[in-house]
Design goal:
heterodimer, A: 411 residues, mainly alpha, 0% strand, elongated, B: 487 residues, alpha/beta, ten-stranded mixed sheet, two-stranded antiparallel ribbon
């Protein structure tokens, strides 16, 4: 037994020794490499920037012969600049990447057995923006790793070629919901062409991909999608109904008002919340009454969206919010006062308490009395103690005094 | 009469010898099993850390930040007598890099100036905000909102304990996800983006996500941000740095991969509110409400036969203060272990129950065998060695070899944790810190771990005797640290 323990000790001691050496060597190597790369970058970057500014026809002609690490550094400089440059300089980056063989190398790397190498290659090809890699990137959309598919999708989005749209739509069914949303982002960035393609293939998409597709259609603001979106307001899937309502709001056609008004009665609160938000964006007067009713909803999000919707409708909406302060429903009162406060409307009325115009004064008095009666006096109490004008402070103190609240007026 | 003769006929000396030898043999097997489990967990964690780091390289946190589909989060900060650091904590939270979030500080009957400091620092005013009391809690005295910061709410309530404060926060929170954060902690700027990512990827299944807790002692905190990371100067907190690295990078990652994560640190965890409300929120029955909540969630969701995920992600960092005095450490560890025993005693029906999957058949038996019984075996092991010595049956050579192997193995696990840190997150950039980590990884096994075992044994008796003591941590608050010179 002692023999076994001695052996175990030797093994453990050896492992410990090598682990410690490995940790130290790893750190030393990393730091040395980082320093070397930084030095090389300092040497090569000015030459690359000169080329990007228009000097010379080919980057290869400007640079000295490059070793392996130097090639990597030049590629890094080109890609760093490629992320924010536009126009001629951007085209020169693509030309340089093709000329120096980076596009060829990275296209070859797309076939690597290691997924992170494939993902890295796709990412870089996207920034290089060379159409030469399109076919390989499309093929990569069927990769087993979501990270790789995601990078390929983004690269295709950056290439903005028509042939990329279909494979991107196919990837919307990615089981990873976040990937699907990201692809919807990419498609939305590609504009109406992507939207038309999406409407056509919507029926063939699986349930999970549809939410992302609907989201995408809204962001493209495609009128061609309106019929589909309205139909989706009656879909059995709650998420689809909610996103369809949201997208109709984004498209912003006032003709959607009746359909969205119907959606306000949906049993699922996310649908009601999104419909209220959308109606706020459309701004039609006939939506004021149903939004007013929705201020009583049991869900905070629905109430607050309804109140925000009314607020964005101008005078009519604001009048409805003021009326809601009389409501018997305390949720409605709260939502109305909170929105008026947030919009700065309440402060405007407080100012009007000392207005020279009698009508304005009266309107302000009426509103503030309503708020006092509704027992939502926190904001007014604050104003009563802090307002810059003494007259306003006194007036507010008088209005607040009859209730249970005690206000200390600043001397 | 028969019993007496039987009693006298027993060779007690022989029986004692056999018991001591038998127990020592048991300790040997126990040691082998325990360390095999640790080794397996380490291997699982190593693969996962490497995979995670590679994935993080392609994580697109900027997209999460910009996306309209990113879930808004309510951050709940329970605070009891936290006047020293609460303003800094809230400032750090308000600076978080995240789209839509609110910070809810729940002042749980503080007797110091916690509320006053917050009111002064953020220009708070009392509001009439209404909310639905979904979970029963102690009385709320007032709700304060900020004139300057629209997404800050402070709730003043009667004292009801941390779990009660968290439940109050849940009642008042507006968003579908809530994040529990300790008032003495600093969350890294991008931590919310990182911790929400699993929810973005699997919105239907994800229930809770835990982030890593690191030790802030020794670091420099300015305006609620950790601006310089370094190891503490005192030995006790450095031992805890090594311990935390091992616990989080080896332990929790491993359990998370096995889908059996039982602990999400109360200092930093993100939860789906609807699921937490469905299990009745936090429980004041135990002293570790965080552990109890996760176990309750597992039990509830397994019973419902729901497909769910509770995971740990190792890069969203929460920096927290740890005890620098033995007495405070004792109180803290006593509470942790007592809480674990309380939760275990409440959910013992899950033990070895295949209905609860890996949790019932692997994770809970592991906790019973190694976390609950482990400290006893360790302490009794030392006692039996002493006994064997006095009985003259101790094979000194074997004992010393065994002790050395045990220590070497412990050192190996600690160094392995340092390795995981060094190949993945590299939060300690200085060479001195790396050298000290390796040094303390060795010394931690010569006294500190044994001390923790003793604390746990004491906690077991406190649990049996139903003694409950929270213990004040005695935080120093986040002051800029003095320049550290390592020799």
């Amino acid at each position: 037994m002692s023999e076994i323990l001695i052996r175990a000790l030797w093994i453990l001691g050896g492992v410990l020794f090598f682990l410690s050496i490995y940790i130290i060597a790893n750190k030393a190597l990393r730091e040395t490499t980082e320093r070397r790369v930084a030095w090389m970058r300092g040497e090569l970057e000015p030459k690359v920037l000169e080329y990007l500014n228009g000097k010379g026809e080919r980057l290869g002609a400007v640079l000295p012969p490059l070793g392996r690490t130097e090639r990597r550094v030049v590629e890094e400089v080109l890609l760093d600049n490629g992320r924010f440059l536009k126009g001629n300089a951007r085209d020169r980056i693509t030309a340089a990447c093709e000329d120096l063989g980076y596009v060829r190398d990275r296209t070859r790397q797309l076939k690597s057995s290691r997924w992170w190498r494939r993902a890295e290659a796709a990412e870089k090809l996207g920034t290089m923006k060379s159409p030469k890699a399109t076919a390989e990137l499309i093929a990569l959309m069927r990769d087993e790793m979501p990270e790789v598919r995601m990078r390929a999708a983004r690269a295709l989005g950056q290439l903005e070629t028509r042939s990329s749209v279909k494979p991107l739509i196919g990837t919307l069914q990615d089981p990873n919901r976040w990937s699907a949303l990201r692809i919807a982002d990419i498609l939305a960035g590609m504009g109406p062409e992507a939207a038309d393609e999406l409407v056509e293939s919507f029926a063939t998409l699986p349930a999970k991909a549809r939410v992302a597709a609907v989201d995408c259609l809204g962001r493209v603001k495609s009128h061609r999608a309106a019929g589909l979106l309205i139909k989706l307001l009656s879909d059995p899937d709650r998420d689809l109904r909610a996103r369809a309502a949201h997208s109709l709001g984004l498209i912003g056609d006032p003709n959607f008002t009746p359909d969205l008004q119907r959606a306000l009665k949906d049993p699922a609160w996310p649908v009601r919340a999104m419909a209220a938000k959308a109606l706020g964006k459309l701004g039609r007067p006939e939506a004021v009454a149903p939004l007013f009713d929705l201020l009583k909803d049991r869900e905070w999000w629905v109430r607050i969206n309804a109140a925000e919707g009314l607020r964005s409708m101008g005078d009519r909406g604001l009048a409805a919010l003021v009326n809601a302060i009389d409501s018997e429903d305390r949720y409605a009162r709260h939502a109305a006062v909170a929105t008026l406060e947030g919009a700065g409307v309440l402060d405007q009325y407080v100012e009007k308490l000392v207005s020279a115009d009698e009508q304005e004064r009266e309107a302000a008095l009426t509103l503030i009395r309503k708020i006092v009666a509704a027992e939502r006096t926190d904001h007014l109490m604050q104003a009563a103690s802090r307002h810059a004008q003494e007259k306003v402070r006194e007036q507010l103190a008088r209005l607040l005094a009859p209730g249970d609240v005690k206000v200390q007026v600043k001397a | 009469m028969i019993f007496l003769s039987l009693f006298l006929s027993i060779d007690w000396h022989q029986l004692l010898l056999q018991s001591v030898v038998g127990f020592n043999r048991y300790v040997l097997y126990y040691f082998l099993t325990l360390n095999t489990v640790y080794l397996l967990l380490f291997i699982v964690s190593l693969f996962e850390v490497v995979r995670f780091v590679r994935r993080t390289f392609f994580s697109d946190y900027q997209q999460i930040l910009k996306s309209e589909m990113t879930w808004p989060i309510s951050i709940i900060v329970p605070a009891h007598n936290e006047e020293r650091g609460i303003v800094e904590t809230v400032r750090s939270l308000l600076q978080l890099n995240y789209g839509e979030f609110e910070v809810l500080v729940v002042n749980d009957g503080s007797k110091d100036n916690t509320l006053e400091r917050l009111v002064r620092a953020f220009d708070l005013r009392k509001t009439d905000r209404i909310y639905r009391r979904t979970l029963p809690t102690a009385r709320v005295r007032g709700i304060y909102a900020s004139l300057e910061v629209p997404n800050l709410v402070v709730v003043d309530k009667e004292q009801g304990g941390k779990s009660d404060a968290l439940n109050t926060g849940i009642n008042l929170s507006r968003y579908p996800l809530f994040c529990s954060v300790d008032a003495d902690s600093v969350i890294e700027e991008n931590a919310l983006l990182r911790v929400v990512k699993p929810f973005m990827e699997h919105p239907e299944e994800m229930v809770a996500v835990g982030g890593i807790v690191r030790i802030v002692n020794g670091c420099e905190v300015r305006d609620g941000r950790v601006v310089r990371i370094s190891l503490p100067r005192k030995a006790l907190p450095v031992f805890q740095v090594v311990e935390y690295l091992r616990a989080f990078l080896s332990g929790r990652i491993g359990w998370s991969v096995l889908r059996s994560l039982l602990i999400i640190s109360g200092a930093f965890g993100l939860y789906k509110k609807s699921d937490v409300v469905a299990v009745g929120g936090y429980d004041s029955f135990t002293d570790t409400e965080d552990l109890e909540l996760v176990v309750k969630l597992h039990e509830h969701l397994k019973k419902q036969k729901t497909k769910y995920r509770i995971v740990f992600v190792p890069d969203p960092v929460c920096w927290t203060e740890v005890p620098e005095r033995f007495k405070t450490l004792l109180l803290q560890r006593n509470r942790w272990h007592r809480g674990m025993l309380q939760s275990f005693s409440r959910h013992w029906r899950m033990l070895l129950n295949p209905r609860y999957g890996v949790i019932g058949t692997v994770a809970l038996p592991y906790f019973l065998l190694f976390e609950v019984l482990g400290p006893f075996v360790e302490v009794l092991g030392y006692l039996s060695v002493i006994l064997a010595y006095f009985l003259g049956i101790l094979n000194m050579e074997f004992f010393l070899l065994f002790l050395l192997v045990a220590i070497f193995y412990g050192v190996f696990l600690s160094i392995a944790a340092v390795l995981l840190e060094e190949i993945s997150f590299r939060r300690y950039p200085a060479w001195e810190d790396l050298a000290r980590l390796i040094w303390y990884a060795v010394w931690e096994n010569l006294g500190f771990r044994q001390l923790l075992a003793l604390f746990k044994v004491k906690a077991f008796f406190d649990f049996i005797l139903r003694r409950r003591r929270w213990g004040e941590m005695g935080h120093r608050g986040f002051q800029p640290a003095a320049p550290v010179a390592y020799r």
